[in-house]
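F.,

This is the one I mentioned.
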């Protein structure tokens, strides 16, 4: 019997689940350690954890608690840093080659030596798939109206080429995503919300010319730049962004 669900949903029926199961944990790098501990009572015979520690970690809102217990470091993260017996999948099947080139070496530079790798393409291509639309503007209350106006025009143009459901708009900031949802009459997402998902076309609203530690975070940018299956449009001004993915984007100009 195969039972699938979120940790919250499965926790509600954990007493009804079969004992000594094989436990498969997807998005393990984003799962807090206490979420996984709920299933210890099942005495699993094997735990298979699948994840990407270079993407976003668990979100712990209590910063003092996090500093004391390192809860923002998932069990998955702690295990791969301690044990060498890790299976590394280094071939990606989603994004076009040009987009992957922006972050291809991130895993080699930032992962422990036992799993450091350069990402390969399952099928290389020479498509012009990444586009940088330079838009100046000031961030006010986590929104950038200049970017909103440009994105509305871009979205309308892309709808002539793609079905609108296959074009997804992302932003690093919740208020910008809400404003874009209102103006385009289509749900837009924050980058954090869209981890684990994909879309044929991604429009990314950068919002701020001078990024915060939150928006310039390498893990968060890796999530943002690894969602598109066909093409990606980056809208904003990234000249002062310091993470290496945005720096690589500037080199394409």
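My design for it:
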């Amino acid at each position: 019997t195969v039972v699938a669900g979120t940790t919250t949903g499965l926790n509600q029926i954990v007493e009804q689940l079969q004992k000594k199961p094989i436990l498969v944990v997807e998005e393990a790098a984003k799962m807090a350690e206490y979420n996984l501990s709920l299933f210890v009572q099942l005495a699993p015979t094997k735990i298979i954890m699948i994840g990407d520690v270079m993407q976003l970690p668990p979100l712990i809102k209590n910063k003092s608690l996090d500093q004391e217990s390192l809860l923002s470091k998932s069990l998955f993260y702690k295990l791969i840093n301690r044990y060498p017996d890790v299976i590394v999948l280094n071939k990606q099947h989603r994004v076009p080659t040009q987009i992957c080139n922006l972050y291809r070496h991130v895993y080699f530079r930032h992962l422990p030596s036992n799993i450091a790798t350069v990402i390969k393409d399952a099928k290389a291509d020479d498509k012009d798939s990444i586009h940088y639309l330079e838009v100046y503007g000031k961030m006010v209350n986590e929104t950038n109206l200049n970017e909103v106006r440009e994105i509305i025009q871009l979205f309308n143009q892309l709808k002539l080429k793609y079905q609108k459901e296959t074009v997804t708009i992302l932003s690093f900031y919740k208020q910008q995503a809400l404003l874009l949802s209102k103006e385009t009459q289509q749900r837009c997402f924050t980058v954090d919300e869209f981890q684990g998902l994909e879309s044929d076309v991604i429009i990314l609203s950068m919002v701020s010319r001078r990024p915060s530690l939150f928006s310039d975070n390498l893990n968060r940018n890796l999530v943002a730049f690894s969602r598109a299956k066909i093409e990606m449009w980056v809208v904003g001004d990234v000249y002062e962004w310091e993470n290496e993915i945005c720096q690589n984007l500037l080199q394409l100009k």
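The longest helix spans residues 145-158.

Talk soon.
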